[in-house]
Recover the amino acids of this structure.
């Protein structure tokens, strides 16, 4: 669970803008009009709002993906360092055990 904490910390700042972009507030019809020109203008405005929301969502998703990639790379680097330290610790423990066994046999 602790391995996910850095990723969660990276994701949280980007989550609100993505949700806001994914749920755009479309222009609402104030009244039912029978005029096709007005209805077409409203639909056109809604389409442009949706296109802007998609663009914003795409940019936020790219930024989030980059941040997650950086966090994963940092996590991988830290894991390699931990593995190296563990191997060195095991080697030192084995040498210590060997030296203790040799000193007891003398």
């Amino acid at each position: 669970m602790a391995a996910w904490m850095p990723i969660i910390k990276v994701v949280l700042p980007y989550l609100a803008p993505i949700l806001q972009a994914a749920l755009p507030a479309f222009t609402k019809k104030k009244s039912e009009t029978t005029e096709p020109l007005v209805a077409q203008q409203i639909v056109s405005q809604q389409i442009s709002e949706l296109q802007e929301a998609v663009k914003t969502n795409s940019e936020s998703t790219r930024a989030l993906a980059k941040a997650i990639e950086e966090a994963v790379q940092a996590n991988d680097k830290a894991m390699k360092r931990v593995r190296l330290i563990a191997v060195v610790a095991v080697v030192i423990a084995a040498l210590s055990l060997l030296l203790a066994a040799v000193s007891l046999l003398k």
